[in-house]
Each structure stands twice: as C-alpha cells, then as structure tokens.
Amino acid sequence: MRTEQDPSLVLNQHELDVLRLLASGHTAKSIAERSGLSVNAVNDRLREARRKTGVGSSRELARLIATQENWAEKIEVPSGAPVDQTEHPEAGLPTARSIRRKAVIVVPAVILALSVIAWHQHSKVNPFDPAITATTDLVIEALGSSIQDPRTLHAALKAEQLDPVWAERMETLLTRTYAPALTKTSLAGAVRVQCGRTLCEVYAVHHQPSSSTEEVRLKQALGAPIFRNLEEAGLVNRGLNTSSDDGPNGRLSFVTYWQGPPRP
Question: 175-190: per-residue pLDDT in tens?
Fold first, then answer.
C-alpha cells in the first residue's frame, strides 16, 4: 500500500485550479476554454499533478482534493467557542493549503470501522449531530462515554505544539493498523492521518456500501483488533462522527480522534 503526502501540499496553484475545475465536471477542453490555455497545457498540468502525488487518475486526484476542501469547510469551530487567533493563528479551520502538519494519504482505501454507523442513516446527516452517537452499534459501544464534539477535538489538534517524532510514529502506527483492514474491502476511497503532540485525527471518505456483502466486509475489517492494537499502544479513542450523502453514488465520510498519554 503506497502512502503519499497530502496532495494539496505538493501541488502549485495552477495545478490545483485545473483539478478543481475537473472535479466540478469540466473536461480538459472546457478547462482550456475557461482558462485561456491550450488543451495540451491543461493535460501537462494534470500529468504533473499525478506525477507529484503518485495518484494514477486525474479525476480521482480531483475528487480527493475536492473532498479535502469540502471537509475543511464542514469542520467549523462553533460560535459559542471561539478560538484565540492571536494566540494560535493556525488553530482555525484547515484548508487544503493551510494544513501545517504532516498528513498521510492512503490511496485507494476505505473508511474502516466508523463506516458502519452511516449504514443506519438513510438521509443526509450532519456529521456533528449528537443524535448519531445514540446508535447501539458496536463501534459506539466500544467508544462509550469517550465521544466528544469533533470540532472541539479538531481545534485542540490544531492548537497543539507539534512533536515531529511522536507525530510521525503515531501516523505510521494508525496507517499500518487501518491499511490491512482496508485492503480486504472493495470500497475505494482515501484516508488522512494527522497527529500533533498527544492527539491524532483520522479522516476518510468513500462511497457507501451498496450490498450486504460490502457491509459484512467492512464490519469484519473493523473488528476488535483495531481498537485493541491502538489501546495497547497507549492510545485512547476520543470520538467519531460520520456524514453520508443520499443516492446510489453517495459518499460516506468519517472523522475520529485518538489521544496518547499526557506529555510534560
């Protein structure tokens, strides 16, 4: 399984602009007409973007960029809990170009454990809706009372002082823990792992299971070993939330947080 750095961190603005247009439904020809470029120039930018990121498909890379930017807009610090921008200017929302910490991308991949929650949701849901945590799914039972508001956890991660050694070790651990389970499924998607000093964020998106077989595979991929392995490594799960889109081609996304022991 190949891991890559967050695509948005290695692409220039021209390449990102072309990918955003591609994600919105444009073709190379219409992008060229809209941007005043030649079709060859557009294709060159797409080719260079694929080379830099290691993603084989321009449309898959465009979807990945769009997903990350859409997620950045979804995670918002609630108005009742403002973040001190003077003290921590980077503690606001992440954007595709402002994530300052190392991110791990696993392509292709699947949501893993937390997908099962959205299987019980038949309409578009708010990823921060407390009602989601009311399910009796085994993932929720495993987390118990540790569930917290992801907006608070995300702000806490962004405000943490980065420990590069710990962050790299935990990002590797989380990726290696999840990746083998992901390869057992057929639901293409992407997973990003980002750690700070004591807290790690795992975000993933993929298409919703379309059959009972896919559901079973994901449930088997989840299992207790994932939680057991991470808990044995000293991590505690602090929360998860999911969001799903309607329709047969809908997407399902999740964010979950793992925390290590307090650091001096």
Answer: 887 766 655 555 445 6
